[in-house]
Amino acid sequence: MQTVAILGRPNVGKSSLFNRLAGRKIALVDDTPGVTRDRKEVEAEIGGIPVRLIDTAGLEEAAPDTLAGRMTASSEGALRQADLVLFVVDVRTGLTAADRAFAQWLRKAPCTVLLVANKAEGRLGMQSAMEAYELGLGDPIAVSAEHGDGFGNLHDEVRDRLQAEPRRGRGEERERPLRLAILGRPNAGKSTLLNTLVGEERMITGPEPGLTRDAISVEFRDAEGPIRLVDTAGLRKKARIEKHLEKISTEASIAALKEAEVVILVVDAIQGMDEQDLRIGRLAEREGRGLVIAFNKWDAVEDRTATRRKLEDTLTASFAQMKGIAVVPLSAANGRGLEKLMPTVRTVYDLWNRRVPTGELNRWFETMKERHQPPLVEGKRIKLRYATMPKARPPTITVFGTRAEMLPEDYRRYLVNSFREKFDMPGVPIRLHLRGTDNPYGEEE
Q1: Which function does this protein serve (predicted)?
Q2: 335 a known binding residue?
């Protein structure tokens, strides 16, 4: 079993991150710096991989014989055991001299280090997370340990790093399942769909809405390999969530979405797609998950042409950032159309995982700049220099250049839409990060 250690200065949210990854509250959490003084360990599963997770005391520059010095020494002991370190910084506070000093120390560490930018709630938090690039530890993973934002992405990154590392005492590696979640409104047919997919009555079904109250995980195989499928409680409008149990069920459903790789959004084709369905889809997009719409009860639809056209119009108007979302009309009750669902899920998963080579990416990037020059901002030309694709899951482009961070929203959409079209990536979220820094291979102009 591999070891993952969480390090960082005091009060950046290490224990909140530990609890979130462990799936339960183990470490005490408080705004007072230094609450954690001893290492805490737990066995957990991150990105489908079993790990030994270690929470550490805050790193502080202090004399060895002081309490702070002994806490730091304990953290250094955890580093020596670790296969992977999650180095946590607080984007609300911004980078400190201590963050920079510890980052320099970790750059020399014998294990892999993943930079986690915590407290990155909302768009402003995501933008602030980009400041952490300067630590020289690679792309920061923006999360909110308090709210659970960004944890699907974090699970993916941890899994990738651990799979790339030789394991200490590693036995035969098990085949990793695709993580798939079924979401939708109450009584849309989610549990019936799960039962039909796995070929047995695993979930209680019936006409009463709300029969499923928890997120239930089931493992099965399709033609391409293992799948961990999670059926969730129906998500109602927030104003209608009143009972404590239903609030817990809703939280479990959202957690399942955040930890999934692909989401199947089950829509009742008779009722059509309503605002709550759109909210679920937007949450999947915001979390960077692949999305497939299962248009259920299709056999009971009378005017199929008009119903399909209305759905496509809704998707075009509501998901501008995920053009081309896959739609599979089916009947979960009798299995009609179901043979197309899992091949579609696998196609979306492959697109979500796809990387574009740097050379090919920059040939496209130069063409886009020639067709449409970046605009003037405050009387100065934005000079975009080059692009990289640091990660997939979802496909992520980082663009470097002078004043790149000032690029207007319409030009950002132009780049994302043309990237999607050029590299044939319909229906998956695409991330665009902008770094206003000099090209190391060229002089500033």
Answers
A1: GTPase that plays an essential role in the late steps of ribosome biogenesis.
A2: no
